[in-house]
Amino acid sequence: MKETTMNLLGIYPKTSSILMVGPYPPSLGGISIHIKRLKRLLQNNGLQVDVFNTDQAQRFKGQNTIKLTMKILGNNFKIIHVHGYPYNILRIIEIARKFKRFKLYITDHNPRLFEEHKGDNIKTDFYRGFIAGLDYLVVIASHILEEYKKYGVTPPNNTLIHPSFFPPDLNEEAEVLKTYSKELTDFIGKHRPLLTANASRLNFYDEIDLYGLDLCIELTAKLKQKFPKIGFLFALANENQHIEYFERMKKRIIELGIEDNFYFMTGQKEIWPLFKKTDLMIRPTYSDGYGISIAESLYFGCPAIASNVCLRPKGTILFKNRDLDDLATKAMLVLKNDAIRVA
User: Fold this and answer.
1) 193: cis peptide before it, omega within 30°?
2) CA–CA dist 88, 90 (Å, integer)
């Protein structure tokens, strides 16, 4: 097994034609951003890369498996690299391997695969065998492999531990900034210190807010006692899931009297330019694989605090998972000791 901080170029032969399978922008999230940047890296190094966007395909319901089958059979990809473990898609790829010769790679971005399928023996048995037969397995952090061990999974000999972060293309900043509203830029200009957090969508794990929106709201109320002009910017790419919970959180913001201090940036927008203005980034996830937004924040010199649920990028300040008091204490220390950025 290899553990390295090198880029992923080493696992791709120079003459490879590659099909990436996974979510891809404009649907934004940690995995889709990773695939976009990995594609750019590989293409800049002379490799041919195509993408099958699973998010886009799902809009056509059952057609996604047909479209993928036709794409694989109609081309001569040397490598198919799947991000995550979409069960139906992997079944299709397994069948396609009987007709086409290609190497199969998977990148696992979170540790919850077997926990989420606990009790489903058909799927767990399938995944155990499938993982063992991969040509390459990439995991974004070592704790994912520890989860595999708990479920009796044997990773392939070619297993690479590699963080999911690649720097953004700074040439795209002007286009990203055009997607920001005047209301957002006004909010940034009027509030200091400025904190940010993000989520691709609202979701739950063990019936707990996975991305910690509830903690961010409570944290803002606590910190406002010390910093009356504090602003918390929560980027939510897809606001159309768990709408009832979202409305409940908005009511909680009003109850706490922080409606002028808390801002939702909704829609499909990249957030990395915000870290040039942000005083502190918060990643209060209940479960996580790595946290690209943490690495992105640190890359731009913005401090980051994250839950201690997994290995985090070097330089991250950790707080006890779901412990609001510990989160508030760590945030207060950072904001007291670091110079507040000038908007």
Assistant:
1) yes
2) 5
Rounded Cα distance between 20 and 117, Å, is 24
Say how far apart CA 220 and CA 277 lie, in whole Å. Answer: 18
Which domains, from first to last, does the chain contain? 2-161 (3.40.50.2000), 171-337 (3.40.50.2000)
CA 10, CA 13: separation in Å to the nearest integer? 8
Backbone angles phi, psi at 269, to 5 degrees: -135, 135
**Tens digit of pLDDT for each residue in 220-274?**
999 999 999 999 999 999 999 999 999 999 999 999 999 999 999 999 999 999 9
pLDDT tens digits, one per residue of 48-82: 999 999 886 555 555 677 889 999 999 999 999 99
Instruction: Please tell me whether residue 141 adopts helix, strand or coil conformation.
Output: coil
Global pTM reads 0.87
